[in-house]
């Protein structure tokens, strides 16, 4: 099926005026593989360290959307909104419809506020209507998805804007076409309604919290309105196999609306859909603003233009088409979340509210921050590519803190969750401010972050709700979290050593913010706490280790065994999570040579697990040893082993784009080991040339000079013609534009 419309010269002229960049010359969307990550990973580290088959899925979906859009549109092969089950698995062969989804890309969470539209032909049926399909029947890209449902002799396709979608259904024989429209409420709270006078179908699916407050109302719903290009035919409601003539239905299992049409062979039915988190009226306004007409081909082309512009911000030169596919697929995955949450008029649901609506004075409000993951590389990537976006994200986080009273730990579903460990909003907001992304109230931001770092909620109900750092009282009392504190009021319980060292990083991040705001007392206190990681480091073993309240170590001890005091990993893996003080960690180990030996041991034993984020900085840590060339070798091996072409192309949960952003940084030759510092550790780029177009119109170019095509070891680096003395580059150098030249050879440069 060819979705490229015939564009008149006049239309081309208008498009070029609106988008003055060579979109048609680039054609980068052809490299994006939305199916990547929808099949189970088979990499060596995924098989060894993945706890279950589910954790070896990247848990991405073939989303049709706009960058950071409100709603993703995906084929549905898995019904419901079950935790850790994405709407689509590549292994499936049964199609349930096209879903308007709010799945957290690459996660093990759950969908919310979603709804599904299933086309069928022939006689009306409201159960057992799913259709068999083969992947040869699908076409998938960021801007359009289509499937040929041979069982029903029809083709279904969908394209999207930031908040809306357009679907097209084409019959291959004259027949009756029915659309079955369901709000996917696992709590049986969905509502759908047909208005025959206006020809509109609308509905909502109330969102519910998970983790802290699991099952409680999230205080908002996923709303949708559907408009048709032709008058509605036969309509009604259904619940399971029961069919009714009523115009609405709610609060029952398997409920929905059906709408029937008579179409000739080759005839098309086009529908437009608006979505919102505030109201049905908000969905209508979004639809009118973003998708006022029914021209499907033009909608597809407009969506493609958006993706070409976004992907075109980084151009790469390489002879490997496979590497281009992996890179631009990673780029697409890195632009799924955080999610746009406000309507076109600025209205959005109040954070941790009860169906209260707020309105922005400017900018956009975002949610679904997979914060334990994305502060490492995904958000730092957009500090370079899109500082205004980062500013909106920081302002969104500050709004959440002000509206809820405490800065959320892992803000998803517009609610407190306290999911995972750490308090990494401190890293995100501090990093933005220190990089000059400052269009927000710094004092407000600091005070909210400070409250998390210094205070425990006086009201126990607030703490149970998910407000404040988990186990902060123990952390402050002992200067580490002893194993006697089981951290009961958390989804991730125990994990005391991992919490200790992640809080130490967050304290470092907040200390830098305090220093910038000239808060000297806080800076001193937080800088001291940034060293608390040393209190769970056992010098007799050379690893972090569980510790009792009396100061004794937990025994027995095996650094390669998963323990309750470590989060999703082992002591050996977590020992290297000291991004704020790698030289200090080296000193604890006995010097940089010992650090190198410890890193060697991790890789030799096969204990490096790329599918889990706490290890993502590890291969770059050789840059702090006498053998930085080992970073260059290790990163190249990981790029080759942990990322591949096709549906199984990711070695673990993508976690809202963190795995993908790691690939992008590593393939471009630099990585933010310490995201707050503004320093990026160098490795050898995978490509011959990289050009990053900055928001100010400047360019930062990386050129590789290789002794031969397989050269990967660095011997000289020049920035704007001057030899660099360090093995890192600074944020300010990148943002100033210019040229980084990396000279590479076949053998390690031991000097």
UniProtKB/TrEMBL annotation:
Q: Which UniProt keywords apply?
A: Calcium, Hydrolase
Indicate the segments forming the Glycosyl hydrolase family domain, all copies: 282-745
Q: Does the keyword Calcium apply?
A: yes
Q: What Gene Ontology terms describe what this protein does at the molecular function level?
A: hydrolase activity
Q: Mind telling me which Gene3D superfamilies this protein's record contains?
A: 2.70.98.10, alpha-1,2-mannosidase (1.20.1050.60), alpha-1,2-mannosidases domains (1.20.1610.10), GH92 mannosidase domain (3.30.2080.10)
Q: Does this entry carry the keyword Hydrolase?
A: yes
> Self-association or partners: how does it assemble?
Monomer.
Q: What is this protein called?
A: GH92 family glycosyl hydrolase
